[in-house]
Amino acid sequence: MSIEQAYNSWSEIYDTNENKTRDLDKKATISVLSKYNFKSVLELGCGTGKNTKWLIERADEIIGLDFSQKMLDIAARKIKNRKVVLKKSDLTKDWDIKNNFADLITCSLTLEHIENLDHIFDQAYLKLKPNGLLFISELHPFKQYSGTKARYETKNEIKELEVYTHHISEYLDCAKNNSFHIVELKEWFDDQQSENTPRLLTLVFKNNL
Predict the structure, then answer these.
(1) For 135, how many CA atoms within 13 A lie in the half-sphere containing its CB?
(2) Which of 3, 21, 14, 18 is nearest to 144 (CA)?
(3) Closest residue by Cα to residue 57 from 79, 72, 77
(4) Distance (Å, rounded) from C-alpha 31 to C-alpha 34?
(5) Contact 69/6 with Cβ under 8 angstroms?
(6) pLDDT tens readout for residues 138-162
(7) How far apart (Å, rounded) are the C-alpha atoms in residues 209 and 207?
(8) With a threshold of 0.85, does the pTM exceed it?
(9) Residues with Cβ < 8 Å from 30, sequence gap 6 or more?
């Protein structure tokens, strides 16, 4: 099953089924991005708009991209705001967004479905304004090493999605190769129990002039 098909299938229960990763991502996104100012946002993997609703409060314009039309349809029903444009997009290809559009690009729980991170950083550099920020929130590779991956439960079965493991060094190397530098890195734990394996990794990069 393709990623598009999987998320189309998942879409109707995505906002309501139990999902610690989804919920922690929302918390981490707000916590990290509250420190920064931005007006134009490009949201990669916007899904049903769980983070879009908060971004609207701080930005003047948002473009949300996602593989899944059904996820976008749910976001459109939830978010009726002229600031927001939602577009179906294959992020593994060149993004149909004008260069130098965004102060901020966000990417949440999306990159585990994309094999080539270098393409993401390359496109992000083109679409960001000078001194723009790239925010990434992803399932921590430590979780992936232990076998955790994107999955959802239906009435009859648990469906697992195709994923790729990206090491922390890979994020940092791809950033450097595409003229970004690291601003901050944080690991997020369930209930902040730091003796356990971290669930999420967040990173903030800035494009170098």
Answers:
(1) 29
(2) 21
(3) 79
(4) 6
(5) no
(6) 999 998 887 665 554 555 655 666 7
(7) 7
(8) yes
(9) 54
Please write the tens of the pLDDT for every residue from 103-130: 999 999 999 989 999 999 999 999 999 9
pLDDT at 187: 96
Question: What is the Cβ-side half-sphere exposure of residue 71, based on CA atoms within 13 angstroms?
Answer: 26
pLDDT digits (tens, 9 = 90+) for 4-22: 555 545 445 555 576 788 8
Collapsing DSSP to helix, strand or coil, 209 comes out as coil
Percentage with pLDDT > 90 across the chain: 67
Residue 102's Cβ-count burial label (10 Å; 0-12, 13-18, 19+) is buried
Half-sphere exposure of 47 toward its Cβ, with a 13 Å CA cutoff?
A: 22
What contacts 24+ positions apart, CB below 8 Å, involve 176-181?
Answer: 177/118, 177/121, 178/118, 178/121, 178/122, 178/124, 178/125, 179/125, 179/207, 179/208, 180/121, 180/124, 180/125, 180/134, 180/205, 180/206, 180/207, 180/208, 181/205, 181/206, 181/208
76 has pLDDT over 60: yes
Cross-sheet strand order for the sheet of 200-207: 84-88, 61-66, 40-44, 102-108, 128-139, 200-207, 180-188
Q: Which two tokens stand for residue 89?
A: 């997009």
Q: How far apart are CA 159 and CA 91, in angstroms?
A: 23
- Beta strand pairing call for 61-66 and 151-153: unpaired
What pLDDT is stored for residue 20 in this prediction? 86
